[in-house]
């Protein structure tokens, strides 16, 4: 029999705010000492009260808009109760009754074609702490640094049917949320996490099979492996009766390539949601809604088409539109220098080369894009040599405040228009010192000219328009 | 004249005139605590060293010619559910025995800024759950009027301390009557302010949507003075109200001419001790005599307040008390795995009433019951609030009993439901978030004080103070002192 | 009427270890208390908005500014058991 897999995803994304959702502790504790980003509020001390970080709501709304959701104009926070040592108040503040965004859609494309994945809802909530097991036998240790870091949970409808589609969906989510600059979405850092709800049924059936939930996948590759394993396990159970499928939560062990049933928490499922009396309702008026809507960027496809219209190749347009940081760099630098094609050459060569060398992702790009445009202009106008412009770009990566023209001037890299005489002096000196090369060139050795040219350039410290130097050099040799 | 009997405003004058020093005043109270609190048991912790240091600082200010605020140098007590930095804050629970917060409640900061003298932390029903202070995990507090009676609760220690002159005033918290009912039982003034008027930051939560901090004092003027110090917006409490808080002493005019006062019939009759009802009617008559217009009125949903409250408050409490799990602070009962550690810690750390309410609240929120219980209760809460809205469209103030009876005898009520019913007069105002004041008004045949309650719309504390002050100025029934021979 | 089984389930949800006598007592008391709650069901609350917050306050926020955290030793000051800069609990089975 033919089977089809039905998959819905719950994706948790850490929002890229500076501080936590309900207190002012730093939200960035990656690699920090345990319990060093903690205050009485986020470790559940008695008498403490939450105050909502406004930017969390901004980001929640913006994420909702990126995923084509309706924004709930009145959105509220609720308490979800369960006991676990990493949950300081024995409740998580989340959104149950009126989440910030509902009824969305994410469009994906795979080898099977285009597809819309419906988004059920996006809700804002706080993260839990971290547990460290077996530092000493029979113990667990708790670190509350991550507690109360803001999250959104993006809940899809069960519209996905393969590992490939899941990958496309996750990549698309990541691109869109990065475009909106609301989240890092780096699975390796735990800033994007994904639970997979999966069931299998005979192809064409409209009855859903037994659903299992899988947790603990740390990369998209692991998610794909887990889906493939779990699908096969379900089909095997249906086909051969190898086991009876039960609705349960399973843990993926990537090293073993298998999923395992997690011990059922005795009382799991009864979370006793109720409105949090300490957090007031959030009411989004038109002005706020519109301000966020105005901050929503164009989608990648729109940018790509625009770039192609500007004369970029499809390949380059695709590469640039992959990241909002590259888009901004391209657009702002083009605006400053008026030469988009030259900008894209710079980005795809020099900029990407430096990023690579520094092991930086596109998202970490932090250039002054206008300054980059200026540098490109100066180089194009022959005011800075190509070799020196690379040095300046490198410096601009390290210091965002560098103005390329001022920097070139301060470092003797600016090519002045009045220095024909100076070039002539240098050329004469070089020719005098190397008659052999002059003769070699006169006897037809083209390479000899390059050697002379190089020596002149070195003497001039690169501060000269190569074309101009070549003209003067030839004039001198030929008398 | 015994200085410990005096009020804030009387003592302030003596301090300013240098007829007494803050240290003398503080010593006097510490001596009384030393001598009498072994019997009364109003205090869980006495902060004598700190109190004397604070008093010295005030005296230094006075002798340096600096002007001082009215609360400066006046010794007081705070309920032990208000966090005090570096000082034991136990909620009268084994769960928090020895717990020293590293922060103070906003109200504690505010009083410290006024140079108030902290004598210590007052006994209470565990986690503010109860109406007798017999639910304290440490010891029961006695009623200074009659050692065989309870002081009321849950702020029983705060009330007894003031009634027995072991503090000039105190702070309590009121979730369903926990300031007003003990004030009534102990013959002093108690006020539950409008929800949001006093920051709850640093108040260890019982039921967050109902809890409110307020004063217990010897007279109405003192109540206004304390209110001046503790009300105000606090950005650390999201439920704190941005409001132009007035000078409450301006309300103390003594004039009630033309004020419209409602006498809701649901607070009288069945279930109310006839002697209590008689005093409420007497107070109403007195106000009429002073020129107010008094009318009987009706708040039809009043009878549903008790069931709604005993769903909402325990539900919130079941969540608020989840944090006591033995992981980060407080009691830990060791066990082989973490779930057993949670369950055993909570078994041993909580008393019977706290467990009962956690069970009740958990049940009301659990799947399958939420709509029938919790959600229904929230809707009824709205109806109760609407009752008040309609009443306050017609009346400036309502007058009612504070409690159905005067102080109960110790151990009199083992039946939780019967005790819950004792809260019927105070609960509705917590559900509606409105201010309510309990004023002593005479004694019953057993020489125990009777409390009359005044209720107003949100932020109408000045009206309540105005009416209470008029009664205070025009009768001798409000300034009651326990018969020292019998009580102590 | 609340059965002992329900009391046991609620106790588990509440992470309260109850003995037999407590279970029996709470079954009886909770039944009595909940009986009195039944009166609420008689009220017509159709169209009544549940009142979760009594004051009409909305949109209370702080700005996204990083403030002072506690030092690790302050965080751990009241810990019943700690090591390696963390709270220590028995193993999760």
Structure, described:
- The complex is a heterotrimer of chains A (479), B (488) and C (93).
- By secondary structure, chain A is α+β, with helices and mostly antiparallel strands.
- Helix content of chain A is 40%, strand content 20%.
- Chain A folds into three domains: 3-286, no CATH class; 299-410, no CATH class; 420-477, Orthogonal Bundle (Arc Repressor Mutant, subunit A), CATH 1.10.10.410.
- Chain A has 15 helices and 17 strands.
- Chain A has a nine-stranded mixed sheet with strand order 3-7-8-11-1-12-13-14-15. Chain A has a three-stranded antiparallel sheet with strand order 6-5-16, with no helix packed on it. In chain A, strands 4-17 form a two-stranded antiparallel ribbon.
- In chain A, helix 2 runs antiparallel to helix 3 (220-240) and helix 12 packs across helix 15.
- Chain B has one domain: Amidase signature (AS) domain (Amidase signature (AS) enzymes, Alpha-Beta Complex), CATH 3.90.1300.10.
- Chain B has an eleven-stranded mixed sheet, with helices on both faces.
- In chain B, a hairpin with a 5-residue loop joins strand 10 and strand 11.
- Chain B is globular, with a radius of gyration of 21 Å.
- The two termini of chain B are 19 Å apart.
- Chain C has a domain at 1-41: Glu-tRNAGln amidotransferase C subunit, N-terminal domain (Histone, subunit A), CATH 1.10.20.
- Chain C is built from three helices and three strands, in the order H-H-E-H-E-E.
- Chain C has helices spanning 4-13, 20-37, 72-75, and strands at 61-62, 82-83, 86-90.
- In chain C, strands 2-3 form a two-stranded antiparallel sheet.
- Chain C is flat, with a radius of gyration of 23 Å.
- The model of chain C has no long low-confidence stretch (mean pLDDT 94).
- Chains in contact: A-B, A-C, B-C.
- Chains B and C meet through helix 9, helix 10, helix 11, helix 12 and helix 13 of B and helix 1, helix 2 and strand 3 of C.
Based on the model shown, name its key terms:
heterotrimer, B: 488 residues, alpha/beta, Amidase signature (AS) enzymes, 16 helices, 39% helix, globular, C: 93 residues, alpha+beta, Histone, subunit A, two-stranded antiparallel sheet, 3 helices, flat
Number of helices of chain A: 15
Please give the largest β-sheet of chain A: 9 strands, mixed
- What oligomerization state is this entry in? heterotrimer
Indicate the radius of gyration of chain B in whole angstroms. Answer: 21 Å
CATH architecture call of chain B: Alpha-Beta Complex
Mean pLDDT of chain B: 96
Query: Uncertain segments of chain B of ≥5 residues (pLDDT<50)?
Result: none
C-alpha end-to-end distance of chain B: 19 Å
Structural class of chain A: alpha+beta
Percent in helix of chain A: 25-40%
Task: Report Rg of chain A.
Answer: 30 Å
Strand order of the largest sheet of chain B: 1-3-2-4-6-5-10-11-9-7-8
Low-confidence stretches of chain A: none
> Could you tell me the number of beta strands of chain B?
11
Mean pLDDT of chain A: 92
Strand residues, percent of chain A: 15-25%
Tally of DSSP β-strands of chain A? 17
Number of domains of chain B: 1
State the end-to-end CA separation of chain A.
Answer: 89 Å
The SS-based structural class of chain B is: alpha/beta
For the record, the CATH class of chain B is: Alpha Beta
């Amino acid at each position: 029999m033919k089977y089809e897999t039905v998959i819905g995803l719950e994706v948790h994304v850490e929002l890229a705010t500076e501080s936590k959702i309900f207190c002012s502790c730093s939200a960035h504790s990656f690699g920090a000492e345990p319990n060093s980003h903690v205050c009485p509020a986020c470790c559940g001390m008695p008498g403490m009260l939450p105050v909502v970080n406004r930017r969390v709501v901004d980001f929640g709304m913006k994420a909702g808009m990126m995923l084509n959701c309706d924004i709930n104009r009145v959105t509220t926070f609720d308490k979800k109760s369960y006991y676990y040592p990493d949950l300081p108040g024995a409740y998580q503040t989340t959104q149950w009754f009126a989440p910030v965004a509902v009824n969305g859609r994410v469009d994906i494309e795979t080898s099977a074609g285009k597809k819309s994945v419906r988004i059920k809802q996006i809700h804002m909530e706080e993260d839990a702490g971290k547990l460290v097991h077996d530092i000493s036998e029979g113990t667990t240790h708790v670190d509350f640094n991550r507690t109360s870091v803001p999250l959104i949970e993006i809940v899809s409808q069960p519209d996905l049917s393969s590992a490939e589609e899941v990958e496309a969906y996750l990549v698309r989510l990541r691109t869109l949320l990065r475009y909106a600059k609301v989240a890092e979405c780096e699975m390796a850092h735990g800033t994007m996490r994904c639970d997979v709800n999966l069931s299998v049924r005979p192809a064409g059936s409209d009855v859903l099979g037994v659903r299992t939930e899988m947790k603990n996948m740390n990369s998209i590759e692991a998610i794909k492996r887990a889906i493939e394993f779990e699908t096969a396990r379900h089909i095997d159970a249906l086909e051969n009766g190898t086991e009876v499928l039960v609705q349960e939560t399973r843990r993926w062990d990537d090293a073993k390539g298998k999923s395992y049933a997690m011990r059922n928490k005795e009382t799991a499922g009864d979370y006793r949601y109720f409105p949090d009396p300490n957090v007031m309702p959030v009411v989004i008026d038109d002005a706020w809604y519109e301000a966020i809507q105005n901050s929503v960027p164009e989608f990648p496809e729109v940018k790509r088409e625009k770039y192609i219209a500007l004369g970029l190749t499809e390949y380059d347009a695709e590469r640039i539109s992959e990241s909002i940081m590259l888009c901004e760099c391209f657009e702002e630098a083009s605006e400053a220098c008026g030469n988009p094609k030259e900008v894209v050459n710079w980005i795809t060569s020099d900029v990407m080369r430096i990023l690579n060398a520094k092991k930086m992702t596109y998202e970490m790009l932090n250039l002054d894009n206008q300054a980059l445009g200026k540098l490109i202009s100066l180089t194009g106008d022959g005011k800075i040599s190509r070799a020196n412009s690379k040095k300046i770009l490198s410096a601009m990566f390290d210091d965002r405040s560098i103005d390329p023209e001022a920097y070139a001037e301060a470092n003797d890299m600016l090519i002045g228009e009045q220095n024909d005489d100076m070039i002539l002096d240098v050329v004469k000196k070089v020719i005098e010192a190397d008659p052999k090369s002059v003769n070699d060139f006169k006897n037809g050795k083209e390479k000899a000219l390059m050697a002379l040219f190089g020596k002149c350039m070195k003497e001039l410290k690169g501060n000269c328009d190569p074309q101009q130097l070549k003209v003067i050099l030839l004039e001198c040799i030929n008398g | 004249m015994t200085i410990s009997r005096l009020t804030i405003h009387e003592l302030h004058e003596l301090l300013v005139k240098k007829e007494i020093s803050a240290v003398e005043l503080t010593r006097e109270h510490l001596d009384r605590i030393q001598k009498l609190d072994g019997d009364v048991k109003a205090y869980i912790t006495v902060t004598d060293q700190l109190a004397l240091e604070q008093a010295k600082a005030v005296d230094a200010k006075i002798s340096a010619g600096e002007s001082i605020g009215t609360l400066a140098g006046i010794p007081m007590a705070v309920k032990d559910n208000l966090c005090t930095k570096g000082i034991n804050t136990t909620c009268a629970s084994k769960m928090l025995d020895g717990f020293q917060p590293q922060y103070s409640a906003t109200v504690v900061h505010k009083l410290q800024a006024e140079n108030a003298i902290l004598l210590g932390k007052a006994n209470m029903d565990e986690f503010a759950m109860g109406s007798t202070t017999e639910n304290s995990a440490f010891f029961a507090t006695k009623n200074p009027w009659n050692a065989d009676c309870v002081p009321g609760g849950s702020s029983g220690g705060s009330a007894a301390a003031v009634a027995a002159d072991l503090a000039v005033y105190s702070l309590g918290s009121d979730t369903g009557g926990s300031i007003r009912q003990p004030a009534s039982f102990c013959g002093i003034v108690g006020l539950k302010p409008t929800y949001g008027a006093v920051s709850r930051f640093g108040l260890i939560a019982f039921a967050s949507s109902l809890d409110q901090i307020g004063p217990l004092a010897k007279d109405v003027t003192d109540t206004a003075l304390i209110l001046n110090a503790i009300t105000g917006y606090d950005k650390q409490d999201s439920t704190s109200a941005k409001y132009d808080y007035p000078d409450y002493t301006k309300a103390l005019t003594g004039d009630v001419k033309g004020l419209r006062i409602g006498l809701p019939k649901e607070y009288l009759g069945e279930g109310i001790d006839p002697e209590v009802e008689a005093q409420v009617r007497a107070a109403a008559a007195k106000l009429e005599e002073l020129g107010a217009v008094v009318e009987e009125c009706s708040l039809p949903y009043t009878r549903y307040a008790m069931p709604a409250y005993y769903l909402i408050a325990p539900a919130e409490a079941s969540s608020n008390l989840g944090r006591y799990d033995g992981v980060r602070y407080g009691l830990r009962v060791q066990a082989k795995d973490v779930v057993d550690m949670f369950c055993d810690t909570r078994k041993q750390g909580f008393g019977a009433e706290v467990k009962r309410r956690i069970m009740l609240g958990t049940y009301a929120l659990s799947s399958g019951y939420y709509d029938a219980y919790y959600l229904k209760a929230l809707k009824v809460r709205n109806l109760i609030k609407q009752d008040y809205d309609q009443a306050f469209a017609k009346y400036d103030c309502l007058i009612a009993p504070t409690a159905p009876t005067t102080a109960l005898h110790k151990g009199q009520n083992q039946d939780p439901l019967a005790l819950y019913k004792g809260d019927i007069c105070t609960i509705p105002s917590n559900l509606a978030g409105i201010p309510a004041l309990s004023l002593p008004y005479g004694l019953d045949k057993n020489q125990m004080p009777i409390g009359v309650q005044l209720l107003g719309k949100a932020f109408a504390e000045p009206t309540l103070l105005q009416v209470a002050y008029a009664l205070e100025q025009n009768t001798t029934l409000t300034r009651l002192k326990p018969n020292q021979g019998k009580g102590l | 009427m609340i059965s002992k089984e329900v009391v046991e389930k609620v106790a588990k949800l509440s992470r309260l270890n109850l003995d037999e006598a407590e279970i029996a007592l709470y079954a009886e008391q909770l039944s009595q208390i909940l009986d009195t709650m039944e009166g609420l069901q008689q009220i017509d609350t159709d169209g009544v908005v549940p009142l979760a917050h009594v004051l009409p306050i909305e949109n209370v926020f702080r700005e996204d500014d990083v403030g002072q955290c506690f030092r690790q030793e302050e965080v751990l000051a009241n810990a019943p058991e700690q090591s390696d800069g963390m709270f220590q609990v028995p193993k999760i089975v």
